[in-house]
Amino acid sequence: MNARRIASRTFDLTKHAATLAPAGLAVLGAAAVLTIGSAVVTHEPATPSQSVSVVTTTPATQDTINLPTRPCTDDGTVDYSCYWDAATMGNGEGNSYVVDAKGRVIYLDARLNDIAERVEFNGKQAAQGKELWGTYDGHRFCWAKVGDTSYITCFDGYKTTT
Fold first, then answer.
1. What is the model's pTM?
2. Which of 27, 111, 119, 137 has a Cα at 20 to 30 A from 85?
3. Are residues 101 and 28 in the same domain?
4. How far is the CA of 71 from the CAs of 14, 18, 36, in angstroms?
5. What is the model's pLDDT at position 17?
């Protein structure tokens, strides 16, 4: 990779990590790897006292990536240029993600970033006659079977009723 090191920072993963990462980044010593444009993000759940190093890199021929610094809302009203830190937001469970300026959702768990799987999930939900509810309790791509009790199913596996 044709990249040069710009900065290195250490932070606590239980806090809002996106506020400390103004460009493409790589987190050292973590389990999962995610590519955001030219950036590589790695993530491992941390204990409150555990910290990781973040190394910001920029390829010589690529613009920097500005990661969001404001939190997403749990109901989807803030839908662009935001982040969701599942460890500290909502019920403290689920999957963290960022939403870029174009509204693209990028999970830190790379297994949830397969667009074909999202399209297949959405198609199955629509074929079952469910309504697209969008973001629900901070979870993205949620559908509901509406009735006296609504059954909500989200792409990341979250299920609930209302």
1. 0.59
2. 119
3. yes
4. 14, 9, 18
5. 39
State how far the alpha carbon of 59 is from the alpha carbons of 5, 25, 67, 106, 154, in Å.
9, 11, 16, 20, 35
Tens-digit pLDDT string for the chain (162 aa): 333 333 333 333 333 333 333 333 333 333 344 444 445 554 444 444 433 444 445 555 555 567 898 999 988 787 789 999 999 998 888 899 999 988 899 999 999 999 999 999 999 999 999 999 999 999 999 999 999 999 999 999 999 999
Task: Find the domain containing 28 and state its range.
Answer: 3-111
Rounded to whole angstroms, how far apart are CA atoms 10 and 25? Answer: 12
Q: Tell me: do 25 and 57 sit in the same domain.
A: yes
DSSP letter string, 65-132: P----SBPPTTSSS-SSEEE-TTTSTTS-S--EEE-TT--EEESSGGG--HHHHHHHHHHHHHTTPEE
Same structural domain for residues 96 and 64? yes
- Total structural domains in the chain? 2
Count of other CB atoms within 10 angstroms of residue 82:
18
Q: Both tokens of residue 154?
A: 């989200």
